[in-house]
Amino acid sequence: MLLQERARTLYTQLLHELNRFPAGGKFYGVRELVSRFQVSRRVVDLTLRQLAGDGLLEHRELCGFYVRSFRKRRHVVFYYNDWVNEELREIARDLKDEFDKLDCDYEFGSVPYDYRSDLVPQLESSPADVLIVCPPSRPITPQEIVFAAKSSKPVIFLGRNLVDASLHCTFRKYEFGMSLLVDYLKEKGHRKLAILSAEAPVGGNRIEAEAFVEYAAARKCGVVRIPCTAEVGNYTPAIAHDALFRHLELHGADFTALFVISEYAAQGALLALSEHGLRVPEEVSVVGSSSALCAGYMHPPLTTVGVNQQESMAALAREIHRMWDRFDGGERIALFSIPKITERASVCTITKFNCPKHKENRI
User: Under a CB-based contact definition with an 8 Å cutoff, are residues 286 and 266 in contact?
Assistant: First the structure.
């Protein structure tokens, strides 16, 4: 009886150890198992026979035990909006890289979906074990919330704080990021700020826009809201370019620092400033929201406020790995990231040599 109990305990432990081996890989030897788990050889022999009998291991004469090639893989799929946005593709690549690093046999895939379509049927038909979803730039619908709450498969929403709805989610501390940004610009001598939101005002975009204005007012900074009609699904730089170009035509540069949502759209803002003869950062400093790789390739390289995307995706992959056998227990993934300023060449400190007042006096 004691032998059977110890074999059952070891069987459970070895089920988790199987995930450390690729399909077809050689499993631990008998002596290694005896030493590693501090059990007798009889317990190890019985457990290995049970694993082989259950089709999880294959015994090869004089060679040992090998993991069966048809062992179930862990299937994770990332669903993201199919509009032009390099950041979403970067997230997909980062997630794949992180799951590849884990010591389990994960199968990761990414699926772009039409942001105008009904998302629920696509998720319902997914063959994956875990669904990671970048929601459309609109409020999450009641139907989507109900589906995620009742789904037998974990559904993890990126970029939305759904803790109160008891849903799996990741999000960043947007308000903290805006407080950090306003203080950063003020320390650089900027008191006349502007915001250009070239993305739909939902989720984190809405929070960032509102928080930026509120914190700027609290720090005694003026804020110009540059009108921009954001089109859901169309976040090309042209949207930001046209909005800023019109504003500069009508009002000139009535600000010294510009915050653009997002960093991708900031490319258009930089072009509009250049077309009006305004030098960045000597005359206007520019900061973009988020931290996609494209920010480092702009001219000048763009200062951003956001989170380290690679670190965030690594944390999510590790949390999914940790939670894999616990999802049915009611525990929820709720990861938040703290934004930081990534300083590049698009922001400078205002001095008496480059402040607007000084230049007006020179003229």
Answer: yes
- The residue type at 99: F
Task: Tell me the two tokens of residue 37.
Answer: 């788990």
The average pLDDT across 262-291 equals 95
**Helix, strand, or coil (residue 147):** helix
pTM to 2 decimals? 0.76
Residues 6 or more apart in contact with residue 175 via CB below 8 angstroms: 207, 211, 215
**Is residue 103 pLDDT above 70, yes or no?**
no
CB 330 within 8 A of CB 165: no
356 burial type by CB count under 10 A (0-12 exposed, 13-18 middle, 19+ buried): middle
**Inter-CA distances, 281 with 96, 287, 361, Å:** 37, 10, 20
* Alpha-carbon torsion, ordered 126, 127, 131, 137, to 10 deg: -20
Cα(143)–Cα(258) distance, rounded to whole angstroms? Answer: 38
Nearest to 182 by CA among 206, 204, 205, 215: 215
Q: 29: how many CB neighbours lie within 10 A of its CB?
A: 12
What is d(CA 271, CA 345) in angstroms, rounded to the nearest whole number?
A: 16
Does residue 286 contact residue 273 with C-beta atoms inside 8 Å?
A: yes
Residue 282 φ/ψ region, left for φ over 0, alpha for ψ in the -120 to 50 degree band, beta for the rest: alpha
Sign of the torsion formed by the C-alpha atoms of 126, 111, 144 and 310: positive
pLDDT digits (tens, 9 = 90+) for 251-271: 999 999 999 998 889 999 999
Distances (CA, A) of 132 to 5, 28, 120, 248, 328: 39, 34, 13, 41, 17
